[in-house]
Amino acid sequence: MKRYLLLQIVILIVLFSTDFSQAGYRETFEKEFMLSPWSIAKGETSACIQCHTSDDMGPEMHEITRQWKDSWHAKNNISCHDCHGGAPEDASMSMMHQRGFKGSPQDSDIPEFCGSCHIAILDNYLKSGHGKTFCDAAEGPSCVTCHGSHNIQQANMDIINEQLCSQCHTYERAKEMKQALFIVENKLSSVEESLAHLQMLGINVDDQEKSFFRTHLEFRALFHSIDVEAVRVKSSDYTQKLEIIESKIDDSFNKLAYRRNFSAYLFLLFIGLSIVVFLLSKSYEQK
């Protein structure tokens, strides 16, 4: 009987340890190492944040850090020094130009300032009507006009709206661009949600995420050309790329369903074996 009991315990461990341990590891890793944008490294606090949130600073400085905390930059661990330079680990050196401190850019420098990271987007922007107007007239739509400065959110179609676009021109042209983006944008949102769901379940989707990131980035760069016809022509290409990613996501969901069904089958088999062992042991005792 002891042998049968030990066998049952081993089967239970195999059935229920794998999936949950993987998910638990991912959750712990993200909490401890990936989701701490207030830190420049584990255990280190940014001098920029400490200073801007101190009682010595006025409400406008507090608002800057509040907006940043809620931004897409913060969610992706892009902190103050990543844009403004300086030494965030050392308050005495944090604003020293010798340590790379750049401060806030002049209005005319904003595209190059943001473009130091968003290179492909900058190239398309400078070739666009927006970029040419800005460079020629030293005024007009720059990055912060549409995206804001510290409260930057993930780019989506909501940014194309009559209230914002009609500040510079009629909304009709912008509406054409929004319609051209519609199919691919919906597909991007759908794939992103599916990837997030798989991650939550503890499934490794690194390859799919890399493909999605490249496709997403290329499409965002194309949009900044403000070329409606180019977006229409390229939309089918990006839709096909996203459908390939979707097929891989579907495979992951199918494998997950198979594993769950197989686990349920093993569990039922375990219950059946337990009943058989119990009946055999009773039969043996009666003899």
Question: What does this molecule look like?
Answer:
The chain has 287 residues and is mainly α. The chain has a domain at 169-287. Helices cover 69% and strands 2% of the residues. It has a two-stranded antiparallel sheet with strand order 1-2. Strand 1 and strand 2 form a beta hairpin. Helix 7 crosses helix 8 (129-137), helix 7 packs parallel to helix 12 (206-223) and helix 12 packs antiparallel against helix 13 (228-286).
Brief rundown of the structure:
The protein has helices at residues 2-34, 47-52, 59-69, 72-75, 80-84, 110-115, 119-127, 129-137, 143-147, 162-165, 171-200, 206-223, 228-286, and strands at 39-41, 44-45. The chain is an all-alpha fold and 287 residues long.
What is the quaternary state of this protein?
A: single chain
Helix content: 55-70%
Number of strands: 2
Low-confidence stretches: 1-7, 9-39
**Termini, distance in Å?**
16 Å
How can the largest sheet be summarized?
2 strands, antiparallel
Task: Give the helix/strand class.
Answer: mainly alpha
What strand order characterises the main sheet? 1-2
Strand content: under 5%
Overall, the morphology is flat
Mean pLDDT, all residues: 81
Order of helices and strands: HEEHHHHHHHHHHHH
| Helix run count | 13
Radius of gyration: 27 Å
Defining key terms:
287 residues; mainly alpha; two-stranded antiparallel sheet; 13 helices; disordered N terminus
SSE layout:
Layout: H1 2-34, E1 39-41, E2 44-45, H2 47-52, H3 59-69, H4 72-75, H5 80-84, H6 110-115, H7 119-127, H8 129-137, H9 143-147, H10 162-165, H11 171-200, H12 206-223, H13 228-286
Helix pairs in contact: 1-13, 7-8, 7-12, 11-12, 11-13, 12-13
